[in-house]
Amino acid sequence: MKISPNTQVTLCGVAAGLLLAMSAHAQDALPIAELGAGMARIEAEVAHTAEARITGLMNRVAMPLHRGMVFVFPEERAHCMWMKNTLIPLSVAFLDAEGRVLNIEDMQPQTTENHCAAGPARFALEMNLGWFAERGVRPGDRLRGIDKLPAPQ
């Protein structure tokens, strides 16, 4: 059976759509934790496995306002983040083991510039660009709910 070029293009498009849907479903499978910063409530996807930490928010085209991703690291150290294959601008807050903000970095999409913790960090919370500044969250502030996050795997 011979497939026409138009049918081939359509089949490739369907296959690509299925792969994206499967990828989105895999991202949806991450646990959600409720965190708090001041009066703000955060629904954070929990990246506590090596695979989830590597993938992060790559290939997402948007993120709801009070949604983010918290990275749970297996050790406390000066972790760094970058934005390769990440399509949305983000701000990242690096947190110590007690949920205290060490520093906040703004990150532009699809760059490989390193954004690093100012000291030993156990967590990193990524939110839409400017989220922390708009809510007055600064270094030294403590986020709620960190103590309820699952252990890293």
How does this model look, in words?
By secondary structure, the protein is α+β, with helices and mostly antiparallel strands. It folds into 2 domains: about 1-30; about 30-150, Jelly Rolls (Sandwich). The protein is about 20% helix and about 35% strand. Strands 1-2-3-8-5-6 form a 6-stranded mixed β-sheet. Helix 2 (about 50-55) links the parallel strand 2 (about 40-45) and strand 3 (about 65-75).
Show the helix and strand layout.
Blueprint (H helix, E strand, L loop, with lengths): L4 H24 L3 E6 L2 E8 L2 H6 L11 E11 L2 E2 L8 E6 L5 E7 L7 E2 L4 E8 L2 H4 L19
Parallel strand pairs: 2-3
Antiparallel strand pairs: 1-2, 3-8, 4-7, 5-6, 5-8
Provide the CATH topology of the largest domain. Answer: Jelly Rolls
The total domain count is 2
The mean pLDDT is 87
C-alpha geometry: globular
Structural class computed from helices and strand pairing = alpha+beta
Compact overview of the structure:
With 153 residues, the protein is of the alpha+beta class. Helices cover 22% and strands 33% of the residues.
Entry keywords:
single chain; 153 residues; alpha+beta; Jelly Rolls; 2 domains; six-stranded mixed beta sheet; two-stranded antiparallel sheet; globular
